[in-house]
Design goal:
The complex is a heterodimer. By secondary structure, chain A is an alpha/beta fold. Among the domains of chain A are: 237 residues, NagB/RpiA/CoA transferase-like (Rossmann fold, 3-Layer(aba) Sandwich); 55 residues, no CATH class. Chain A is built from 22 helices and 13 strands. In chain A, β5 and β6 form a beta hairpin. The longest helix of chain A has 24 residues. Chain B has two domains: 118 residues, no CATH class; 119 residues, Rossmann fold, CATH 3.40.50. Classes of the chains: A alpha/beta, B alpha/beta. At the A-B interface, α1, α18, α19, α20 and α21 of A face α1, α2, α3, α4 and β5 of B. β13 of chain A pairs antiparallel with β5 of chain B, so a sheet runs across the interface. The complex binds iron/sulfur cluster.
Chain lengths: 489, 248
Amino acid sequence: MSILYDTDKSLKERVAASLDDDFKHNAIKTAQEVFYVGRGKLVAEMEGWEDLRRHAVEVRNHVTENLDYYVKKFATNAEANGYIMHYAPSGDDALWEVLDIFEEHGASYAVKSKSMMTEEVGLNEVLEETGIKITETDCAENILQTAGSKPSHIVVPALHFDREAIADIYRKKRGYEGTTVPEEITHYLRKILRHEFMEAEVGIRGCNFAVAETGSVTLVTNEGNGRMVDTFPKIQIVFVGIDRIVPDLESLDTMMALLPRSAVGAKMTAYFSLDSGPAGPGEIDGPEEVHIILMDNGRHTLANTEFEDMLRCMRCGACLNICPVYRHITGHGYGSIYPGPMGLVLTPGLVGYDDIDNMVFACSLCGACSEHCPVGIPIHDLIREHRIKIVEEGKNHAIEVPIFKALELFWSNVPVYKAGMVLGPPVMKALAGGGDALDASSAWIPVVKGWTSTRDFDVLSTKRFTEWFKNHEKLPTEQPKQNEEGGEQ
Amino acid sequence: MKIAFFPGCMVDMIYPEIGIAAVNVLERLGCEIEMPEKIVCCGQGLINSGYREENKAAARMIVEAYDTPEYETIVSLTGSCMNAIVNDYPLVFKDEPEWLERAARLKTKFFEFTDFIVNELGVTDVGAVFNDTVTYHKSCHVTRLLGVKEPPLKLLENVKGLEYIEMAHADRCCGFGGTFSFKQPVIAGEVVYEKCQTIIDTGANVICGADVPCLMNIKGALGRMRADGRLDRDIRVMHIAQILDSRG
Ligand code: SF4
């Protein structure tokens, strides 16, 4: 996979497919509810939540403003810990580095834990093409890999399958013979994966935060499989985005207070690994050789632009969990590994505007995402900023330009507006068959049909408020009852 | 108190009765209302669709009309238009310092209708009587982006005869989103149908709000649901000003 998938379908087709799939549609709605309630409860009972958020914003901004310094500091300290550093300006560079490592060791078998960066560059596909076997060991990712499906959420990517569907996938693809009881399925997975952990030569993983001061990488999971990926195989490859760096352990603490609460409504996750180097001399456990792929892939270019704030993102998914659009169209509607509000900012930020269809217009700009983002990203403002850029760069649809030009004139010119308001109401009334609203039968009228295909449209009034106002007689004052602040209850 | 009134273009074009109700309420509270002649629309549909440059003409007209020393207090009947003026005009005018300064001045004078009544006039009981069950949609622009949360509820609380029933997820977007509604009708439809279902589930006979575009959207969807049988009773859609103007 790369960032965009499903590009042969239009946004409209992807949305229609998501809405048609009742199970998926309802599963996402229910999950949103669960995360939302969980997060809300924890945030309400946590003292100093807003202070934490402010601190996180400061820390993240500080790193972005001094990105080169922190990239270097992290790399230097990680190297001192015994890590082998590879700097990858682009996704392709990262892939070459990984292929070189496999070749150098003659390795052909890898296990992997969940990592957005590897998805971003399409690592699995590339490795498989060269004959390397790679197994996703995160349960959800393994389900997706086995089913050949795409992620529908950044934190819980297999949200669109229920246990029946999951059992079925393993029955068909792997010969699973058990029931649909979740414990039984996970037990089965544990059995087949355990074997793979033992056999694999290389472990590939992501990193939630990289600590500059100590040269450490972290892994936040709920299953423990990630921990086996990062301890069993003798060779390790860690993907680190340059926007994952925090200055020190104290700032890591702030991020870790915000992340699980925002992501899944939990105080902490079941597993949290802080790794600072390969196995030392004489140590029995742990990998012998660890490579860190420090990947930019477009992040540097986001710094110093209108979209710089997005580099604060910690991929918690809180914005997806509150979004009124995501809950209906699901991750698959967007067709990006980064869906929902954060995806509408990040996806075009990383891939540009040519291949994203109408994606950034799939948002009502309600601002719920910005309100919930733990690191205060003005997400909806940035989504609109993409729209402004699209128009500035002439990448908007030529067909809509005359409509907006007409609106520009109509909305800013009193005589034109007045003339429109003389002509408009009778025409609309006629179109509405004399009624008060354009109903379903008016779904043929250009422009308006966008609205009337799903809702009635009230016709323009023949009476105008501004006219009434000019001629109305002022009502006499009544003695109001005042509230406490007014002092005259 | 002398105030300037900003109705929002939808009130002028489609729902004059909402503007009339608001003027009645404010006048009974002793307001001397003025309204400039040369106004049309705040133009937010343009910048929200990416047409920042094209929004300038409408924005200049609004600033020109309201940024005068005579107007010290401006009351807006529509949350999203006010949000556009106070929060988005700085972006529209980002490369025009002179207009930017005028827009910034305007920001300090603007008040949302319910916020004005409760926090500026200090009134929570306007003497309204409304004998029915009512639910309130917490519009995104009023509630989240302008931060006006308590005032509308305080006002409703003090309306005699009114029984308030809160809907689930009252602050979830209705799916209007300006041109989003036209450009993405399927998604917008899905969002507003769900909003309508939460309204229907309250059992209330009236849904009210403080932002005109949302009400138009909700009314349009309830109408469609009534027509195709998803809704089997009439639910009235009203602006909060109409409830506050009611005398039973
Ligand atoms: S944008 Fe904010 S809320 Fe969304 S994933 Fe990133 S950090 Fe979380």
